[in-house]
């Protein structure tokens, strides 16, 4: 249990609140664009923290490369699908929420 | 230790069910599928480390790929923009619904 293992645990614990706040944003935010914002940003930061924490703990380059590959794939996929959903919503004339 | 972290992630998935019930548009419900993808990948990664089973990493890879494909297929096939007129318009001329100053 070296310092790498413990710093990995700290990173994993740091990543968990991002997932919870992403879900709270998905439930509480008022329109589709803000919900997309909460979902595709906060969750990916949380996943990044967990991936880096597990990579620090794994101790093997093969597992680390696979973890980073998974994270990269999730990043590309979620940003692409976020863009697609927001573009379709604009084309359907769904109005962004304003404070009034 | 990592299995306990997994238990913290389960409320994050369960909260998405509320948006499935309530979401006004179909895309709101589809966003829950995306949440399931991201949270499911995180749970699988943590379980793979906690149980010492590296096969779960490959399952997480397939899971993220399938979640992305599901959302993209949904947008392209059932929820694309309305009609040709809007789709080919340039970004500056789109009607955002806001009053013109």
What is the rounded distance between the termini of chain A? 55 Å
Helix percent of chain A reads over 70%
Strands of chain B, total number = 0
Helix segment tally of chain A:
3
Query: What general form of chain A does the structure show?
Result: elongated
Structural class of chain B, by secondary structure, is mainly alpha
Explain the overall architecture.
The complex is a heterodimer of chains A (100) and B (101). Chain A has 100 residues and is an all-alpha fold. Helix content of chain A is 84%, strand content 0%. The mean pLDDT of chain A is 89. Chain B contains 5 helices and no strands. Chain B has one domain (2-78). Classes of the chains: A mainly alpha (100), B mainly alpha (101). At the A-B interface, helix 1, helix 2 and helix 3 of A face helix 1, helix 2, helix 3 and helix 4 of B.
Short description:
Chain A has about 100 residues and is mainly alpha-helical.
Identify the notable features of this structure and list them briefly.
heterodimer; A: 100 residues; mainly alpha; 3 helices; 0% strand; elongated; B: 101 residues; 5 helices
Can you lay out the helices and strands and say which pair or pack?
The complex is a heterodimer of chains A (100) and B (101).
Chain A lengths: L2 H26 L3 H27 L2 H31 L9
Chain B lengths: L1 H13 L1 H7 L3 H26 L3 H23 L5 H5 L14
Helix pairs in contact in B: 1-3, 2-3, 3-4
């Amino acid at each position: 249990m070296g310092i790498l293992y413990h710093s990995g645990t700290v990173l994993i614990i740091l990543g968990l609140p991002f997932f919870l706040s992403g879900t709270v944003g998905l439930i509480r935010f008022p329109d589709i664009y803000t919900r997309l914002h909460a979902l595709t940003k906060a969750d990916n930061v949380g996943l990044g923290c967990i991936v880096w924490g597990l990579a620090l703990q794994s101790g093997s380059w093969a597992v680390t490369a696979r973890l980073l590959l998974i994270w990269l794939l999730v990043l590309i996929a979620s940003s692409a699908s976020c863009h697609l959903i927001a573009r379709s919503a604009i084309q359907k004339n769904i109005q962004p929420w304003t404070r009034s | 230790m990592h299995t306990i972290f997994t238990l913290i992630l389960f409320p994050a998935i369960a909260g998405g069910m509320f948006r499935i019930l309530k979401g006004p548009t179909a895309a709101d419900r589809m966003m829950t599928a995306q949440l399931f993808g991201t949270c499911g990948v995180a749970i699988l990664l943590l379980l793979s480390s906690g149980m010492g089973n590296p096969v779960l990493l490959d399952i997480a890879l397939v899971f993220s790929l399938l979640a992305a494909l599901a959302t993209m297929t949904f947008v392209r096939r059932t929820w694309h923009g309305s009609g040709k007129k809007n789709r080919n318009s340039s970004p500056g001329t789109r009607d955002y619904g806001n009053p013109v100053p």
